[in-house]
Amino acid sequence: MSLPCLQEPIRNSLIDDAKARLKKHDAGTKYSHLPSSKYSILLPLLAKEGKLYLLLTLRSDKLRRSPGEVCFPGGKREPTDKDDMATALREAQEEVGLCPHQVEVVCRLVPLLIEVAHTCYSRSFASKRPKFWNISAHCCGMS
């Protein structure tokens, strides 16, 4: 039996356990009615070699807003986005090449409200269905 065959059950068990824990915190669409400038981020959860990882991106130093910051893929909602999840998935595809059909949305977290800017950040956990993949650092949304 080859090593990848041995690792697959461990990977699946690890992801299934994480998904079960995260689903307990699912806010669903409870906050989707909030009237504000909306930004959505995706918290991509990846499994590799028996460990879970969250994918972060590094914003370019050349951006006007928040240059050089480490963040999750995400950005501002566009008129063509159906909902917060569509925004997060679109931004993740634009920023790190994550195709929406490769993502399983596990839960939607309670949004982070920032009163000063009248901005709502919707956060969602997702696990990637295929095996671990490598990406290069790229800028995050809200540029």
From TrEMBL:
GO terms for molecular function: coenzyme A diphosphatase activity; magnesium ion binding; manganese ion binding. PROSITE patterns: NUDIX, NUDIX_COA. Residues 36-143 form the Nudix hydrolase domain. One of its GO terms (biological process) is nucleoside diphosphate metabolic process. It comes from the Eukaryota. Its cofactor is Mn(2+); Mg(2+). InterPro entries: CoAse, NUDIX_hydrolase-like_dom_sf, NUDIX_hydrolase_dom, NUDIX_hydrolase_NudL_CS. Keywords: Hydrolase, Magnesium, Manganese, Metal-binding. Belongs to the Nudix hydrolase family. PCD1 subfamily. This is Nudix hydrolase 7.
